[in-house]
Amino acid sequence: MNRPTDRVRKLARLRAIIDARGAEGLLLTSAESLAWLFDGARVSVPLGGPAVLTAAVDADGSIFVHAPANEVDRLREEELGGGVRIQELPWFEPLPVAADGWLTEGDVVPELRAARASSCPPSSSAIARSAPRWPR
C-alpha cells in the first residue's frame, strides 16, 4: 500500500486527547475511528459490520494493532500502511479491551468527534481528487 497519509497529524490530535486526560493511551475500536486513522482502510468484514481490529495509540503516538490471524495479511498489505505493529490473534479470540490507565472511545466521545471532524491536508486533497468533474 502506497498512498498519501496524514497520520502524523491524526496522531497529534489523538495524543492531545490522551495528554489532556492524563492517560497512557487510547484504544480505538469503532469502524469510523479506525477508518479515519488508517486513511479510509476497510476495517470491517463484511463491509458495514463491526471492525476486525483494534488500534491502541499510546501517549508517544505509537500504534499497536490487534487483529485475527485470518485478517492480518490483508490488513498489512492493503489497509494499514507502515509504522504499525500488529499482534495476530487466533480468529476465535475476542479483540482486547482497554487496560487500566487507558481510555476507550466511550470516554472521549466529544473530543474524538472533534478530532475526526476536520480533514487534514492529504485527506482534503484526496476528497478533491475524487469529486466528480462535470463537462462544462
UniProtKB/TrEMBL annotation:
Residues 115-136 have a biased composition (Low complexity). InterPro entries: Creatin/AminoP/Spt16_N (IPR029149). Residues 114-136 are annotated as: Disordered. This is Creatinase N-terminal domain-containing protein. It comes from Pseudolysinimonas kribbensis. The lineage of its organism: Bacteria, Bacillati, Actinomycetota, Actinomycetes, Micrococcales.
